[in-house]
């Protein structure tokens, strides 16, 4: 198996949330000699140097300043660190029918039934008390233990589950985390009636709370935790499968596979005349309308800050944007062998057949003939196989960061990605060969004169 695919598995296993993915990015960038910048302080940049910065501890921008950026512009690869998930609500512990349940809400657009009957753990960040209320410490946590499950209702009690399978988003996605040890006699004797939402069991001093749960599995004390931002995640590790180990089975490949490919490409890059940049946004799955999302001034402001710090003027910004190129890297739909009628009759990518260029007539993907030709030329000159994807004409596709980021900047752009089956499932299926080819293409994009 190729090393790049093995490294991807390690990255996926270390990144249960966008916070953890950003932390992994920062760690690898620092190890490669990239210097971290503090956005709240003045910068003193130099051409030919490597830098990175973060926002919200979930989005990262890394760049290598070009020696002739005024004339050569920027080459940018963008991706996003977040994936569809089940997010934990505030004060989430529900005590009901002798059990403790974890209250959740849906982040993005997951395939909900894939979250049932899976070993689940909890990860995210916590905020700790400090003497300065405006300088609180934030720490990442990953309980790692399989502490929860969302059990299915037995088919004997839900006869139509295989016919409709509709999920109650209000109650059906609560995760079971433990059972009270002192069940009352009526529950023990199976005589308890269904307790209504308005008649949940009253809280007791020794009841389980989220802070108690965190303290039990981490080194932090219950009384030092102010707040938490946590997500459930499937505990099963990423792995290869298939007769030839040609598949990657893991959650969050959309879009951590593209994050990892962009990271490896910029880590291997050398200084060029143009500035090379990798942008790892957050919150794409919920529309990008956040300070760390693509639909914000984040990237544009950073580009301006870089070039002005290196001596450019306001007029130069517009000139540089015209000379720049953005690759929006987000996973693409692979042809499902059992549902081939759901795809366009011609443009239907396969796993392990190379990068996918994504087109849409209404520009839900930013690709046009001019931008596609640049990458096609690179691939054909370097023996990289490639594919096309368009939606079936009567179907609407998903969104990407491409149109949003390109609109924010006014920059020429292309949408592409590696093919993927079961996109937005708790367990997606990618191709191990595709990852190596995507990294090769991204490296050519950064480095080719």
TrEMBL record:
GO terms for molecular function: aminopeptidase activity; metallopeptidase activity; zinc ion binding. Keywords: Aminopeptidase, Hydrolase, Metal-binding, Metalloprotease, Protease, Zinc. SUPFAM superfamilies: Aminopeptidase/glucanase lid domain, Zn-dependent exopeptidases. This is M18 family aminopeptidase. CDD domains: M18_DAP. Its cofactor is Zn(2+). The keyword Hydrolase applies. PANTHER family: ASPARTYL AMINOPEPTIDASE. Pfam families: Peptidase_M18. The keyword Hydrolase applies.
């Amino acid at each position: 198996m190729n090393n790049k695919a093995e490294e991807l598995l390690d990255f996926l296993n270390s990144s249960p949330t966008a916070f953890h993915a950003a932390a992994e990015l920062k760690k690898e960038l620092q190890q490669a000699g990239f210097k971290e910048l503090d956005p709240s302080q003045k910068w003193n940049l130099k051409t030919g140097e490597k830098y990175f910065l973060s926002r919200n501890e979930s989005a990262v921008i890394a760049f290598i300043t070009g020696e002739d950026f005024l004339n050569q512009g920027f080459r940018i690869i963008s991706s996003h660190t977040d994936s569809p998930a089940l997010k934990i609500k505030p004060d989430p512990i529900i005590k009901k029918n002798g059990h403790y349940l974890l209250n959740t809400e849906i982040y993005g657009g997951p395939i909900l039934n894939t979250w049932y009957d899976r070993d689940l753990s909890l990860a995210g960040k916590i905020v700790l008390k400090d003497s300065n209320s405006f300088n609180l410490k934030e720490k990442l946590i990953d309980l790692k233990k399989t502490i929860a499950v969302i059990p299915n209702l037995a088919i004997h009690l839900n006869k139509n589950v295989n016919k409709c399978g509709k999920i109650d988003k209000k109650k059906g996605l609560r995760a079971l985390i433990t059972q009270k040890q002192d069940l009352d006699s009526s529950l023990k004797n199976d005589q308890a009636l269904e307790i209504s939402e308005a008649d949940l069991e009253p809280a007791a001093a020794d009841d389980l709370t989220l802070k108690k749960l965190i303290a039990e599995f981490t080194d932090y004390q219950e009384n030092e935790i102010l707040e938490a931002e946590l997500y459930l995640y499937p505990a099963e590790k990423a792995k290869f499968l298939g007769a030839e180990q040609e598949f990657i089975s893991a959650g969050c490949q959309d879009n951590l596979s593209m994050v990892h490919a962009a990271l490896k490409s910029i880590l291997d890059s050398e200084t060029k005349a143009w500035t090379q940049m990798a942008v790892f946004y957050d919150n794409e799955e919920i529309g990008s309308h956040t300070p760390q999302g693509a639909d914000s001034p984040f990237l544009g402001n950073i580009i301006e800050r870089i070039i002005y710090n290196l001596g450019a003027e306001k007029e130069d910004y517009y000139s540089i944007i015209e000379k720049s190129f953005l690759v929006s890297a987000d996973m693409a739909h692979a042809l499902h062998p059992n549902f081939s009628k759901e795809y366009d009759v011609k443009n239907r990518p396969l796993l392990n057949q190379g990068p996918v260029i994504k087109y849409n007539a209404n520009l839900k993907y930013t690709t046009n003939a001019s931008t596609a030709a640049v990458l096609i030329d690179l691939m054909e000159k370097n023996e990289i196989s490639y594919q096309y994807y368009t939606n079936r004409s009567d179907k609407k596709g998903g969104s990407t960061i491409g149109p949003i980021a390109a609109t924010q900047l006014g920059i020429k752009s292309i949408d592409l990605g590696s093919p993927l089956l079961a996109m937005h499932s708790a367990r997606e299926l990618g191709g191990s060969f595709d990852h190596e080819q995507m990294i090769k293409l991204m490296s050519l994009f950064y480095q080719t004169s």
